[in-house]
Amino acid sequence: MTMRSLSYDHSHYAASFNVFLKKSTEHQCMQEFIQKKLPGIISSVGHEKSSINVLSVGGGAGEIDLQILTKLQDKYPGIIIHNDVIEPNSEQIMKYKENAAKTSNLENIKFTWHKETSSEFESRMKTSKEMRKWNFIHMIQMLYYVDDVSATIRFFHSLLEPGAKLLIVHVSGTSGWAKLWKKLSPRLPVVDRCAYVSSADIKQLLDGAGLKYQSYELPSVMDITDCFTEGNKDGELLLDFLTETNNFVETAPLDLKDEIIKDLKSPELSEKRNGKFLFNNTLSAIVIES
Ligand SMILES: C[S@@+](CC[C@H](N)C(=O)[O-])C[C@H]1O[C@@H](n2cnc3c(N)ncnc32)[C@H](O)[C@@H]1O
C-alpha cells in the first residue's frame, strides 16, 4: 500500500481532525486570541461601511468562524455581514450549517457556502471577472492544503478592500509540527497535496513580497499519549493527522513508524507531564494589512 495524503478521504480527514480537536487545546487557544486580540484587529475593518464582507477560506465546521462573526457583530451592531465560506469538504459544510443554526444572535449575518477549494474559487473569480472585494478574510489552519502557498496568499490579499485585513492562523515555526516536518517531510506524501510549511516559512514569504503584518504566538498542546498504545484508534487517527497521511500505521514503512514514535516522545517535540506526552502545538496568528 502506498502512502496517500489525508485530505483525499473527506470522512477520514474529518474523523482524524475531530480527534485532534478533542486531544488538543487548538480551539481554546484560538478562542482566547479571538476574545483578547481580535476586537482590536477588526476595530477599523467595517468603519463607516453599510455592510461588511467576510471571506472564510477553509472554514471547516465553522466553530471558530462563528466566534469571529459574533465579535464582528458586537463591534458593528445592526450592520449586515455577508459571510462567504470556501470549503471543499461537504461533511464540514453540513456541520457548519448545523453549528450556525444552533448559534443565537446571528440575525445580521448572511451565509453563503461555496463547496470548492481555494484554487477553484480563484479560477471561478478570474473567469467571471467578478473580483468582489472583502473587508476581512481569514485562512485558519488551511494553507497546508494548497499547491502554492505564496500565490494563494497573494491572490487573497489582492481581494482586500483598502483598510481590510487578512488573518492567517498556522502552526508556529517554534512548534513540534515544524520540527517534525523539517526532519521527516521528505518521507511523507509531500507531492500529494500537503505543504509542510510553518509560520516561519509564511513570514519569509510575506517579507519577500513586502507585505506588512503583525504576528502573535498562541501557546497550545496536544495530548499524544494514545499514539504509543498499539491498536488505539484515537492514537492511529492522531498519527494520521500528525503526518497528514491516510492510514499512516498501515501504509508507512516500519523504520519511518519507529522513527516518528521515537521523535514524538523527544523533549524537543513534547513535554512529559503526569505520565502524558504533550506535543507542542503552538500556533501563530498573522494579521496582514491591505
Ligand atoms: C484543519 S481544518 C481547519 C478548519 C477550521 N478553519 C478550523 O480551524 O477549525 C482545514 C480545513 O481546510 C479545508 N481545505 C482543505 N483543502 C482546502 C483548499 N484547497 N481550499 C480551501 N479549504 C481547504 C478542509 O476541508 C478543512 O475543513
Automatic annotation (TrEMBL):
Residues that, per the record, bind S-adenosyl-L-methionine: G58, E87, Q92, S118, I140
InterPro entries, A to Z: HHMT-like (IPR016673), SAM-dependent_MTases_sf (IPR029063)
Protein's UniProt keywords contain S-adenosyl-L-methionine: yes
Listed PROSITE patterns: SAM_HNMT
GO biological process, one term: methylation
SUPFAM superfamilies, per database record: S-adenosyl-L-methionine-dependent methyltransferases
Domain of life: Eukaryota
Alphabetized UniProt keyword annotations: Methyltransferase, S-adenosyl-L-methionine, Transferase
GO MF terms held by the record: N-methyltransferase activity
Residues that, per the record, bind substrate: E26, N281
Gene3D superfamilies from the UniProt entry: Vaccinia Virus protein VP39
Assembly behavior: Monomer.
Protein name (Swiss-Prot/TrEMBL): Histamine N-methyltransferase
Organism expressing this protein natively: Varanus komodoensis
